[in-house]
Each structure stands twice: as structure tokens, then as C-alpha cells.
Lipase domain-containing protein
Amino acid sequence: MFGSQRLLAVAAAAVPAGERFMWVPDSEGNLHMVDLLDVEPEDTPVPFFNGEKDVDLRLYTQNNPSTPEYILQSDPSKSPSFNPANPTRFILHGWTSSHKQMDPIRQAYIDTGKDWNIVLVDWNGPATSEYSISKRNSRRVGEYLAEVILHLEAERGLNLDDVYIIGHSLGGQASGVAGNRLGGRVARIVGLDAAAPLFGTTSLKNRLDPTDAKIVQGIHTNGGLLGWDDPLGHVDFFPNGGSSQSGCILDVTGACSHNRAPPFYAESIINNEFVGTLCHSYKAYKKGNCDHYPQAVMGEWTPAETAGNYYLKTNSKKPYGLGA
Ligand SMILES: [Ca+2]
């Protein structure tokens, strides 16, 4: 980051909440000014959006662990390894990113040795616009994903009881849109620090909330800045309090903390030592006031009946999980 940008970042961080502009870092760490009042009517059409062209659905299985097949509604022969008998996971990246950001999650599923349909949803083109435009595009990505899931259900035997949608940042909000258009029938949606900027006035139809799946889990790592602060699911996890992550030094833009959520999830798949404790605040959790309350693991293996707000601490580097 250039020196002047760093100064601006510090200045932006010093601006009290409620101001009009904020700086949002892209996947390269460059800062972009976002006008928080630049909110279009919610259902503004998205011109030139072509789901099959703009969104790649990259399927990986134990047959093709690292070379994708592409799920196309128009040509099922491109994804012969899809097996409806296996659990399916759709994984969405965030703003200015690509499937590469979420590849460690693919690897973790493969490393379990179990059979899965792992689908990395790459929407890099629509994600790489001005933030407000990408925010609007993310709604269409969610709608397109819902169309594809309906197609897979009708034509290829996909069972929505075996489907999780996992999305980071803008991809987390897009996951909620997909779930909404599917009538909340998907088994689980996980919002990995689901995006906050410009979503403050967005209706529940177009952002992640508990009606979007049978179980919605929120994992909050930069709540109050780049990520959604309040609980948004049936169960919400707040690692290190949910706003600032261990080892993220001088994280004035929030990028380091925000981008911890995907590696937390990847680790949770293969080696889940993220043990949360039900509590009413991080302060109370740290004091030990909730030590006698229920515990649950965060991420892929959270038991279905888990509900409420869970707090945990993590390491500052891999492996992040600390155990009970
Ligand atoms: Ca919703």
C-alpha cells in the first residue's frame, strides 16, 4: 500500500460510525472509497448479466479432485462426476476475488477422503467492479445459483437436504439470496463474515437471514466494519469476539480479520478444534462467566440442533483452532 493510501486508511478508520464514506479493501489490499448512501432500489435490473457466461460452477469430486468439470444447465455431459448420492457444497468467494480464494476449502473436503460434490462458484467477472456494482451483481449471482440448483434437483437428482451453500463476504449475502429463491429448502447456509457495506437497508429477501435455509450459520470475523455485526443465523460464532482477529496487527481496513473466515472454515472441515461456548457477550465469555454453558464446534460439523451465539478464541496462525 502506498504511504498516502495508508494515511487515508488511518484517517478513514478514525471517522466515527455514521459517516457517509468508508474505505473497502479489494483482494489485493488496495483501498476503494464506497459511498454508503449509494444505494439503488433493491430490484434494479442488472443489465448484461449472463449467468452461464459470467459464473463458472467448478465441480470437484474424488474422481477429479483438482481438475474441475463445469456444471452447465445446457450440457450435463460436462459434469459426469456429479453424483446426487453424495453431499453437495457450493462455495462462493467475495468482492474482487475468484475461486482461488476458496480453493483451500475444496482441498479440505477432498482431504477428508469422503465423497462429495464440491462446487466452487467463480463469479470473478461480476465481482470485479466498483463495490456498489458488484454488490448488485452478487444478487444476480445468488439468483442464478438458485436456478442451477433447481435444475440439478429436477434433472440430476440433487437432494437439497444434502446441500450446504458457503459464502464469504458478498458471496455470503449472495448465498442468502440463493436460499431465499429456493424457499429456504437448502439444508444449511454458512455466511463467512457476510458483507456489511451497503447492506444496512437491504431487505431480508436480498441478504442472509435465518429464513434462507433450514440452518443458517454466521461466522463473524470483522463484524462492524467489512462484515455483518449482528447475529444473522440460527447459530452465530464470534471467534475472538467477532470483530478483530488474533494476529491481525494494525488491521485498520479490516481486510486481515475479514479474510480469516475462509481459512477458519477450511480448517473446520479437516481438523475441527474450534470449540465455541454459548454466551451473551465476549467479555462475559473471557471472564469465564459462561464456562458452564453448552459448547459446540464451529463450521462444517456444527450439530444441527445448535442455536444461539457462541464465542471462542483462536490461535494467531495455523492451526487456528485451540480445542476446548
Ligand atoms: Ca434472506
